[in-house]
Amino acid sequence: MQETRRLILDILRHRGFATVDEIVEHLREQRGDEITSVTVRHHLTRLQEEDLIAAPQLRRRSSPGRPQHVYTLSSKAREQFSNNYQHIFCALLDEIRNQLSPTGVNVLLEGVTNRWSQEAGIGDVPMCDRMNLAVDYLNQHGYDAQWEMSPEGYILHTANCPYHAIVSHNEALCEMDLRLVASLVNAVPRRLAHISSGDTSCSYLIPESKAAEF
């Protein structure tokens, strides 16, 4: 494979997702040249034709400006990379379940999501600002997130699952994500869609009445 395209795949593998500008920035750092966004778009088109990159998704900005397209690896591309970490991680999850009671597992997962929520550092802000900050945090960790308003409240979408290759092994990871969303938005969300069930995203509704309480 052409070297630049291999580097682009590596960038997406490590980041989970990236915009054209972000890919350009990483390539310039790695290669030490002045590759342009036009060249990167050309390579992305070729990678899409080879079914190694999924169709780009629009990402809402938290600051003024036009929405940007974000790119992620396709399932075919993920399968081409070494996945030994999956074996290790699945073994760790199994050992946790063997060593702890269901209550202990829940306490452990709650501790993880609380740690992440504290890391996000979202303070007492209006709900729209909270949603923007939550999306920013999730996108920094590979979720390809965005939100929109609906008649019932706020809907948060995460189009990329960081645990895609192992989530079928342990549904506790999905529950951990649900807890993370709840912690970030400071409200109890209701799951509307689920990637592991064949949907295109994991989507969560934060009802307007609940959101207004925070």
Quick one: how many beta strands? 6
CATH architecture designation of the largest domain: 2-Layer Sandwich
Poorly predicted runs of 5 or more residues = 210-214
C-alpha-based Rg, rounded: 18 Å
Tell me the structural class: alpha+beta
Measure the end-to-end span: 51 Å
CATH topology of the largest domain: Muramoyl-pentapeptide Carboxypeptidase, domain 2
Percent strand: 5-15%
Q: Percent helix among the residues?
A: 40-55%
Q: Which sequence of SSEs, written as H and E, runs from N to C? A: HHHEEHHHHEEHEEH
Main β sheet profile = 4 strands, antiparallel
Mean pLDDT across all residues, rounded?
A: 84
**Taking strands numbered 1, 2, ... along the chain, how are they ordered across the largest sheet?**
3-4-6-5
Number of helices: 9
- How many domain regions? 2
Q: Given the C-alpha coordinates, what overall shape results?
A: globular
CATH class of the largest domain: Alpha Beta
How do the strands and helices of this protein lay out in sequence?
Elements: H1 3-15, H2 20-31, H3 37-49, E1 57-59, E2 68-70, H4 75-80, H5 84-99, H6 102-120, H7 127-140, E3 145-150, E4 153-158, H8 172-185, E5 190-193, E6 202-207, H9 208-211
Antiparallel strand pairs: 1-2, 3-4, 4-6, 5-6
Helix pairs in contact: 6-8
Features:
Muramoyl-pentapeptide Carboxypeptidase, domain 2, globular, 214 residues, 2 domains, alpha+beta, Arc Repressor Mutant, subunit A, two-stranded antiparallel sheet
